[in-house]
Amino acid sequence: MSGDHEHSESCGCGCGCGDTLVLDQDLARRWREAPDQEVVCACTGVDKAAVKAAIAAGAFTAPLVKAMTGVGRELGCRQRRQCQSDLEVLVALYGGAQGGHC
Predict the structure, then answer these.
(1) Which among 66, 83, 84, 94 is placed 20 to 30 Å from 76, CA to CA?
(2) pLDDT 10s digits, 54-68
(3) 12 lies in some domain
(4) Half-sphere exposure of residue 17, counting CA atoms within 13 Å on the CB side?
(5) For residue 36, what are the domain limits?
(6) What does pTM read for this prediction?
């Protein structure tokens, strides 16, 4: 329990508790090998370096990284689902044990 509510699967607060992401190993390998300049979200121009910087600054969940970087938040974005998948993989890869602290 953290804060003023009990965390549970899908509590919705962005803390990451209850996340059960099954990591796509091919996608994870592609992002591990990708240079930091690789674009994660074409609509906003956010790259891997910006996502890693957000994670390093304390954004240990995909919703928090989205809020800090703008990934997948463009109104006319047609690739939102792909951005979300890529973002979740990057958070899993670079968030490490720091993510989901309840």
Answers:
(1) 94
(2) 999 999 899 999 999
(3) no
(4) 13
(5) 25-98
(6) 0.72
